Amino acid sequence: MRNHATPYTVILAILLGASLASAKTLLQQRDALTTFLESRAKTVATGAVNPDTWADPDSSFRHLPMSGPSAPPGAREADRIAALPGQPPRVNFDQYSGYVTVSEQHGRALFYYFVEAAYEASSKPLVLWLNGGPGCSSLGAGAMQELGPFRVNPDGKTLSRNRHAWNNVANVIFLESPAGVGFSYSNTSSENHESGDTRTAVDAYIFLLNWLERFPEYKGRDFYIAGESYGGHYVPQLATVIVALRNLGATSMNLKGIFVGNPYLDDYKNTRGRYEFLWNHGVMSDEVWGNISAHCSFGRLEGKACGQAKASFRTGDIDRYNIYAPVCIRSRDRSLHSSGYLAGYDPCIGYYVDAYFNNPEVQKAMHARTNTDWSECANLIWTDAPISMVPTIDWLVNNGLRVWLYSGDMDDVCPITATRYSVKDLNLTITNPWRPWYTPDSEVGGYAQQYKGGFTFASVRGAGHMVPSFQPKRSLVLFYSFMKGVLPPAVPELNA
Asked: How far is C-alpha 166 from the geometric centre of its chain's CA atoms?
């Protein structure tokens, strides 16, 4: 949460011709996770407990179907995108988008955008990407700001190529989930404003079943699920549904592994990790951190002294998703500009994406419902979520799934400090100790450690919450290594 402007910053903003209020709007729209964390803290403090769907996956999901209904004739071709408005020339891959119904009873349909690999798509694996929130669009964030083949230009009308897009190495689906997010919808209006972990996971599974009927050549293809942020819930939970049904012989999906960046994994560990991260990075003084440590248990119930300790410092007007990144400023003439320079990163891109997907020509080209008021994140009421994802991840590792977690090391929303606490709770045996990993350019891309069962935890150096936005080349190197099941080189290639 950003602090109120001081008189000095107000005067400075006037001198610079900037509007602080306008600059804050986009952050508030995107900051669904912070809103969730605030409401979650109140819910957990009341002692409210949801039934644990994830305690016995083999029983919880045995009722789900093992295959989808046959796709209507011509459904795949109807989803083909001839060209996105404003796309650059010489696009060398096929694109599709449209709706897949996941509940006939409620009229619930999820919107997807699918990009085939630029080279040898028929031999490349299939990847499903899920952004978090909860309630944020994988189309607006993942596809157009992170790992997709295009980035929206400042004019909000044209696109440029992302040289480090993940469809260089895989066929990638971006899913807007749950209903109510982006172009996805339900004819049962309440479902567009309320959701939860269980329904989100089940709907994503039904989506995959039905999508594979539309694209049958991907049945049996090596399949991976990737995501970030609250994807720390979405991704392992969807994987759990698939693995549980596979254990029962009820699905043939060839799920090989999951790859989750800056994951939100544990209510309590994330709270402790956020404050510890700020102290580690010089945002918080020793005295304030000592006071918080002395008065906060980072558990379900916290006393008044803990709240006072937490409120005793200010972060300043920084981006908590990357504490070293510039922020977007809107001037009085409504022009947008960055408060500083960071190579390859534009903090105002969310505005461009919003303008692009609210363009009627774009909605028509992508087969979305026209006149949709598209936004990157939806204000959803979240009804169920486990306090910790550690038991679910442990179950997946024990069932032989390849599990990699990674953290951009400049994020304070789901910081590396919090993820480390959850990794420690897994209590796995280390097989490959913490060491640097290198990119093909012989630079340190980050650090990594592997554990018994193949579980891997890695950092991406110089990245914030949305790792592919800040370090696109490093994120692609790590993702490719994940699919191959081996860490990037431990020494520079030139010296290997």
From this structure: 14
CB burial of residue 84 (10 Å; 0-12, 13-18, 19+) = buried
Q: What are the catalytic residues?
A: 229, 411, 465
* Sequence-separated contacts (24+) of 426-431 with Cβ below 8 Å: 426/390, 426/393, 426/394, 426/397, 426/451, 426/455, 428/397, 428/452, 428/453, 428/455
pLDDT tens digits for range 209-227: 999 999 999 999 999 999 9
Enumerate domains of the chain plus CATH numbers.
57-269+325-425+460-467 (3.40.50.1820)
- What are the tens digits of pLDDT across the range 127-150? 999 999 899 999 999 999 999 999
DSSP 80: B
Q: Looking at the predicted structure, is the pLDDT value of residue 14 above 70? A: no
Q: What is the band of 252 on the pLDDT scale with cuts at 50, 70, 90?
A: confident
Cα four-point dihedral sign 138, 141, 147, 149: positive
134: preceding bond cis by omega (within 30 degrees): yes
Handedness of CA 49, 50, 53, 54 (dihedral sign): negative
Strand partners, 176: 111
Is residue 75 within 8 A of residue 214, CB to CB? The reply is yes
Contact call for residues 133 and 385 (beta carbons, < 8 A): no
Return phi, psi of residue 394, to 5°. -60, -40
pLDDT at residue 303 tops 60: yes
Q: Which residues contact 371 (CB under 8 A, 6 or more apart)?
A: 360, 363
* CA–CA dist 260, 401 (Å, integer): 13
Q: What is the pTM of this model?
A: 0.92
Radius of gyration of the chain measured on its C-alpha atoms: 22
**Local structure of 317: helix, strand or coil:** coil
| DSSP run (H or E) holding 99 | strand 95-103
Which tokens hold the place of 6? 């001081």
DSSP-assigned letter for residue 131: -
* Residue closest to 24 by CA, chosen among 344, 373, 466, 348: 348
Count of positions (residues) in the chain:
496
Place of tokens 């609210």: 358
**Cβ-contact 264, 414 below 8 angstroms:** yes
The one-letter amino acid code at 211 reads W
Q: How far apart are CA 335 and CA 259, in angstroms?
A: 37
